Amino acid sequence: MSDHASLSAPTLLEVADLRTTFDTVAGPLVAVDGVDWSLAEGARLGVVGESGSGKSVMSRSVMRLLPKSRVMSTGRVTFDGIDMMSLGRRQLLDMWGPQLAMVFQDPLGSLNPVMKIGRQVGEGLRVHRDLSARAARRAALELLEEVGIPEPQRRIDEYPHQLSGGMRQRIVIAIALACSPRLLIADEPTTALDVTVQAQILDLLETQRAERDMSLVLITHDLGIVAGRTDEVVVMYAGRIVERAPTTTLFRNMKMPYTEALFRSIPKVTDDSHARLEIIGGQPPEMTRLGPGCKFAPRCKYAQDLCVAEEPALIPAPASASSSRAVLGDQAGDHDAGDTPAPGVHEYRCFYPVGTDEAAEALERNIASGRVSETGVVIQTA
């Protein structure tokens, strides 16, 4: 689906001010801190960020798959007009499968080790479609063929440990697709797979999404995965969305320094075979001990005293997704003419957006002070 088409399609899922807090021995840990986003019918959204940025917790919060004890989620999650946050267990069971489904990043951990593949794939069909055991087996065989499992008539009677990692991931996808959900959330679906198998799994997801006219949320730490496979991208850091834009716009004109750092860490075929990979120095912040200022400042090559002392403001996001991104300052000219804030949707205002004169000057100061190397690597914390 094109960017224009996704904008004109009706909204399927809307997430507003979603916050998820874990009660830990070290104190409250806010894993998801007030995120807002929406997804149109048939659209593809990429969610990108390092491990610990809040991507998986956000997706599980949307699906209502978090434990009941010592976890609190607030905010609004609306699926096709249904308030997901108010549903009870029985109602959620009716939603999982036919309406929303999820592909987890650990296929072996997602599958029952003592249950044959055919029974696991057909289980949802028996529950939601009221199929007999024989009919569910036939449907499971068809699903195994659809997701590219070789020798499905043999594999259907095997156990998860007898399959390769790539085949197990295909089985998990088959289970998620069994009841033809309207929304599929794929959480790091290519983790621990080699590059060739990764491409096959991603192609499979896109083929199935297009054939079934599903909406897709693709969660990954790799910006390269969402390029060409999503309509829009949101970038998460420390539990917040720090940048959002249509995919083509993001790669052409990213504004948030964290997004740039993720992009520069992607291996490129144009690089010399012995070239060192660029890394993002330091570690994500400890979520129970967040201080003032921008949470990315200690790792940002543009960061100044202002970034360390003051939290970047959240500003109303434009209604047009084509200009929805981190911007500099509060000037009206920062947004395209005619844009109006989308109700309840906010985004970061970065003090030194990538590509601006302010950012270039800040980088020069950091290099002169010795905080950042000549190649742009942070060697001292802010």
Descriptive notes:
There is one protein chain. By secondary structure, the protein is of the alpha/beta class. It has two domains: 3-248, 3-Layer(aba) Sandwich (Rossmann fold), CATH 3.40.50; 254-369, no CATH class. Helices cover 32% and strands 22% of the residues. It is built from 14 helices and twelve strands. It has helices at residues 3-8, 55-63, 89-95, 107-110, 117-128, 133-146, 152-155, 165-177, 195-212, 223-226, 247-252, 257-264, 305-309, 357-369; strands spanning 11-24, 27-40, 44-48, 71-79, 82-83, 100-103, 183-187, 215-220, 232-237, 240-246, 314-318, 341-348. It has a six-stranded mixed sheet, sandwiched between helices. The chain has a four-stranded antiparallel sheet with strand order 2-1-4-5. A two-stranded antiparallel sheet has the order 11-12. Strand 7 (183-187), helix 9 (195-212) and strand 8 (215-220) form a beta-alpha-beta unit. The radius of gyration is 22 Å and the shape is globular.
| Tally of contiguous helical segments | 14
Strand order of the largest sheet: 6-7-8-3-9-10
The value of Rg in angstroms is 22 Å
Decide which structural class fits the backbone: alpha/beta
CATH class of the largest domain: Alpha Beta
CATH T-level fold name of the largest domain: Rossmann fold
Strand residue percentage: 15-25%
User: In total, how many domains does the architecture comprise?
Assistant: 2
Helical fraction equals 25-40%
Number of strands: 12
